[in-house]
Specification:
The structure is a single chain. By secondary structure, this protein is an alpha/beta fold. It folds into two domains: 187 residues, Isopropylmalate Dehydrogenase (3-Layer(aba) Sandwich), CATH 3.40.718; 130 residues, Isopropylmalate Dehydrogenase, CATH 3.40.718.10. The chain is 40% helix and 21% strand. The protein contains eleven helices and twelve strands. A ten-stranded mixed β-sheet has the order 2-1-3-12-11-4-5-10-8-9, sandwiched between helices. Strand 6 and strand 7 form a beta hairpin. Helix 5 crosses helix 6 and helix 10 crosses helix 11. The model has no long low-confidence stretch (mean pLDDT 96). The chain binds 1,4-dihydronicotinamide adenine dinucleotide and magnesium ion. 1,4-dihydronicotinamide adenine dinucleotide binds next to helix 4. Magnesium ion binds next to helix 8.
C-alpha cells in the first residue's frame, strides 16, 4: 500500500516536530512492511510569505489535491500578523478541502502527571469534535468608520442547516463507535438565541437516528467547569468552531500539555485529502532549542494512519509512544528532561522493538 503524504512544516517548532514525525513514519514503514509513504515537502509559511507576499502559491490547493493526506506543523511568526498566517495557509486548506470535522482526542498518557487531582493515566479519554467549516470562523463581518470614535467591528457567526447537521451526524456516529456511546452537545443557546438554538434543535433531530447513543447538552461556560470538576462524566463532545477551539486547548492542558494534543481535519466524504497536525502553534519561545514535545505530532500521525485504513500501524505507533512516555522519557513541558531527539529516538526504538 502506497500513500502520498504532503508535509507542510511551516513556522517555529513546526519544522522540528514534523522532522521528528517523518522519522517515526519511516520507522513504521520499515517495521510494518507492505506500507510505503511517498513524502513530498512544501516550504510554505511565514518565510515563504516574506519572500513572495503570500503564504502559499496561488495554485497551492491544486498541488495538494493529489495527496492522500497532509501532515502539517504550525503557522505563526513574530513578524507576520497572526490573521495573515492563519487565513493565508491553514484555513484555506481546511475550507478549500471541506475538512469540516476537526477531531481532537485527549487522554492522559502513561508517565504524565496531569494538573487535576484524582486524574491519572487513561483518564480524560475524550474526543472533541469541532465544527471546522463555518460558525464564528466563517470570516464574515467587517469594520466601518475605521479608526474613528464611532468605529464598529462585526464578526458574524454563520450556521447552516447543512453544516450543523453533517457535523452532528459525524459526532453521533463517532460516539456510537466508542464503548460508552455518549455524546455531549455544547452550545450557548441561552445568550445566543438564533444559530445556537438551531444547533440544539438539529442535535435533537439527529439524535433520533442514533437511538443507542445517550446524549446531553451543556452551555459552553458550564462545560469548562464540568471538564475540570467532573471530567469522568464526559466522553465524546461536539461544539462549534470557536467553542471547541477553546475547550480543546483546555483539554490539552488538562491532559498535561498542548505538546501532547493532536488534531485531525477530516473530510469525512473523502473527496479531498484530510490534514493532520498538532493542536499547538509555532511556540516561538522554545523554537530552535530542540525541546519541542513531538508527542502531539506522533499522535496525529496515528490519526492519519487510521484515516488511511492502516489501523494496525496506527495502534503500533500509539503503543510505542505510550511505552516511551510511560518510561519517563519526556520533554520539559510535561516535567521531563529529554529533548525532541531523545524522545523521537526512543519512539523509533520502541517501534522496532514491538
Ligand atoms: P503555542 O501553542 O505556540 O504555545 C503556547 C505555549 O505552549 C508556549 O509556551 C509553548 O512553548 C508551549 N508549547 C506549545 N507546543 C509545545 C510543544 N510541542 N512542546 C512544548 N511546549 C509547547 O501558542 P501561542 O504562543 O499562543 O502562539 C504562537 C504562534 O502560533 C502564534 O503566531 C499563533 O497564532 C500560532 N498558532 C498557530 C496554530 C496552528 O498553526 N494551528 C495554533 C495555535 C497558535
Ligand atoms: Mg486553538
Amino acid at each position: 500500500r502506497e500513500y502520498a503524504i504532503a508535509t507542510i512544516p511551516a513556522d517555529g517548532i513546526g519544522p522540528e516536530v514534523i522532522a521528528a514525525g517523518t522519522r517515526v513514519l519511516a520507522a513504521i514503514e520499515k517495521r510494518e512492511g507492505g506500507i510505503k509513504f511517498n513524502i513530498e515537502n512544501f516550504d510554505w509559511g511565514s518565510d515563504y510569505y516574506k519572500k513572495h507576499g503570500i503564504m502559499m502559491p496561488t495554485d497551492g490547493l491544486k498541488q495538494l489535491k493529489k495527496f492522500d493526506a497532509i501532515y502539517f506543523g504550525a503557522v505563526g511568526s513574530p513578524d507576520v500578523p497572526d490573521h495573515i498566517t492563519l487565513w493565508g495557509l491553514r484555513l484555506p486548506i481546511c475550507q478549500g478541502f471541506d475538512q469540516y470535522a476537526n477531531v481532537r482526542p485527549t487522554k492522559i498518557l502513561p508517565g504524565i502527571t496531569p494538573p487535576l487531582r484524582n486524574c491519572g493515566p487513561g483518564d480524560l479519554d475524550w474526543v472533541i469534535v469541532r465544527e471546522n467549516s463555518e460558525g464564528e470562523y466563517s470570516g464574515h463581518g467587517g469594520r466601518a468608520h475605521r479608526g474613528l470614535p464611532e468605529e464598529v467591528g462585526t464578526e458574524v457567526a454563520i450556521f447552516t442547516r447543512v453544516g450543523v447537521t453533517r457535523i452532528m451526524r459525524y459526532a453521533f456516529k463517532l460516539a456510537q463507535s466508542r464503548p460508552r456511546k455518549f455524546l455531549t452537545v455544547v452550545t450557548k443557546s441561552n445568550a445566543q438565541r438564533h444559530g445556537m438554538v438551531m444547533w440544539d434543535e438539529i442535535a435533537a433531530e439527529v439524535a433520533e437516528e442514533f437511538p443507542d447513543v445517550t446524549w446531553d447538552k451543556m452551555l459552553v461556560d458550564a462545560m469548562t467547569v464540568r471538564m475540570t470538576l467532573n471530567p469522568r462524566s464526559l466522553d465524546t463532545i461536539v461544539a462549534t468552531n470557536l467553542h471547541a477551539d477553546i475547550l480543546s486547548d483546555l483539554a490539552g492542558a488538562l491532559a498535561g500539555s498542548l505538546g501532547v494534543a493532536p488534531t485531525a481535519n477530516i473530510d469525512p466524504e473523502r473527496r479531498f485529502p484530510s490534514m493532520f497536525e498538532p493542536i499547538h502553534g509555532s511556540a516561538f519561545d522554545i523554537t530552535g532549542k530542540g525541546i519541542a514535545n513531538p508527542v502531539a505530532t506522533f499522535w496525529t500521525a496515528a490519526q492519519m494512519l487510521d484515516h488511511l485504513g492502516e489501523t494496525d500501524a496506527s495502534a503500533r505507533l500509539m503503543q510505542a509512544v505510550e511505552r516511551v512516555t510511560g518510561a519517563g522519557i519526556l520533554t520539559p513541558d510535561v516535567g521531563g528532561t529529554a529533548n525532541t531527539k531523545e524522545v523521537t529516538d526512543a519512539v523509533v526504538d520502541a517501534i522496532y522493538a514491538s
